[in-house]
Design goal:
It contains twelve helices and 16 strands. The protein is an alpha/beta fold. It folds into three domains: 122 residues, Udp-n-acetylmuramoylalanyl-d-glutamate--2,6- Diaminopimelate Ligase, Chain: A, domain 1; 141 residues, Udp-n-acetylmuramoylalanyl-d-glutamate--2,6- Diaminopimelate Ligase, Chain: A, domain 1 (3-Layer(aba) Sandwich), CATH 3.40.1390.30; 99 residues, Alpha-Beta Plaits, CATH 3.30.70. The chain is globular, with a radius of gyration of 26 Å. The chain starts with a helix and ends in an 11-residue tail after the last strand. Bound molecules: zinc ion. The site of zinc ion has 4 residues, from loops.
Length: 404
């Protein structure tokens, strides 16, 4: 199978479009897209040892969960000791080995890393945590850019005889663009009702009276980036002193947020969820000790780090509401309120903040929330590419941290 075909099939199984906008997913190193491929090495982290293993196993592709090239490389020098990833990339190219990363797309996909993390928690329902474009490793500029690109609906109520003018003015600044179609809108008639205050200067009606006006509600697609221009259009084309309009953010048009009844042990695939994290609501609340025992068994780890309020710690209160995120939780949980957070790592002050809100935080270490998924990913890759493809899990890939 040619490398380009492999990339296509991997993308069909785990759509890269679901990755975070700050992420660097997909083909990262492609020495020859037409090269034939028979052996793949899966790893969480691509290190020099993993590359050596790939060469030894005659793999033509390394699928690394974490993107090995994340920050732009300043050079490609095999002798650059301070930036060892440069040497890994040079040596991969020299050996004709391609590199591909699914990262947050694999977290998000149904049956992916986030779902796997939930699988050991117990019976209950599962929903998706909306995608959060902020991340500890993303820059402020990245986050601002992602927020600017957020798709919204602008809804405005305007007197009927001004509707066409306003609709056209919004279209002229690019509002209402959907794919290759411009000026898309939906309008419906209704009755506006207001009472102008003493300091008002109403265009229609009299101060103090209740006024009703035949209005049109116009709805059009936009992004947050366009809001400043929309305000200018409202000011120029809407006749009211205080135009009635609002913005509604849109979820991406995937099945994020779908609610899904689950049984423990991974039977979760009836209604797929696509989101970077999950919220599990257990059918039967459990003590924190029981929950931690389940997590330790599922992840096959010896210890967890737990911050819990006294009433949770002593077992007088139980937990049923658990927000889950692979890797580094923290910003994906911003603005959310849950009884418990399960993730790999979280910044100290984020832990303190959650604890102060009365929540429990369970940390299992970063890669413990990821590495155990590789055998499942191996099955997915086999299913996507066919059983003739040799797929290995790197034996040299391991958590760089040791507890001593
Ligand atoms: Zn990670």
């Amino acid at each position: 199978m040619k490398l380009h075909d492999v990339f296509k099939r991997l993308d069909i199984d785990v759509p890269l479009v679901n990755a975070a906008t700050w992420d660097k997913v997909g083909p990262l190193v492609v020495p020859d897209g037409d090269a034939s491929l028979s052996t793949i090495l899966l790893t969480v982290d691509l290190t020099a040892a993993v590359l050596a293993e790939a060469i030894d196993k005659q793999a033509q592709l390394i699928v690394a969960y974490h993107p090995p090239i994340f920050k732009p490389l300043s050079a490609l020098r095999a002798d650059q000791a301070t930036e060892p990833m440069q040497a890994v990339v040079v040596n991969a190219i020299r050996s004709g080995i391609a590199i591909y990363s699914p990262h947050t797309a694999l977290d998000a996909v149904s049956g992916g890393v986030a779902d796997w993390l939930c699988d050991g928690l117990g019976d209950g329902t599962r929903t998706g945590i909306d995608p959060c474009e902020s991340n500890a490793s993303s820059s402020v500029a990245d986050r601002a850019s992602a927020r600017d690109d957020e798709k919204c609906i602008v809804s405005v109520h305007v007197p009927q005889d001004h509707a066409d003018d306003l609709r056209e003015a919004l279209a002229n600044i690019g509002v209402g663009k959907i794919g290759n179609y411009d000026g898309c809108s939906f309008s419906f008639d209704g009755l506006g009702r207001f009472s102008a205050g003493e300091k008002s200067n109403p265009v229609v009606g009299i101060r103090g009276d209740v006024t009703t006006v035949n209005e049109v509600r116009i709805e059009m697609r936009c992004t947050r980036r366009q809001v400043a221009d929309i305000k200018k259009v409202m000011s120029a084309h809407h006749p009211y002193e205080e135009p009635a309009w609002h913005l509604t953010p849109l979820l991406p048009t995937t099945d994020r947020g779908a609610c899904n009844k689950i049984k423990g042990s991974g039977a979760h695939a009836q209604q797929p969820i696509t989101a970077y994290g999950r919220v599990v609501t257990l059918a039967t609340p459990v003590t924190v000790n029981e929950l931690c025992a389940r997590v330790k068994t599922h992840l096959d780890v010896d210890y967890l780090r737990v911050a819990a309020p006294e009433h949770i710690q002593n077992g007088s209160s139980m937990i049923s509401d658990i927000a889950v995120c692979p890797g580094a939780g923290g910003s994906p949980f911003d603005g959310r309120q849950h009884a418990c957070y399960l993730t790999g790592e979280m910044r100290h002050h984020d832990v303190l903040s959650k604890l102060a809100q009365g929540s429990t935080v369970i940390l299992s270490e970063h890669t413990h929330t990821e590495r155990g998924y590789l055998p499942i990913y191996k099955k997915r890759v086999h299913a996507a590419l066919g059983s003739a493809m040799n797929v290995h899990i790197a034996t040299t890939d391991r958590d760089p941290l040791r507890v001593i």
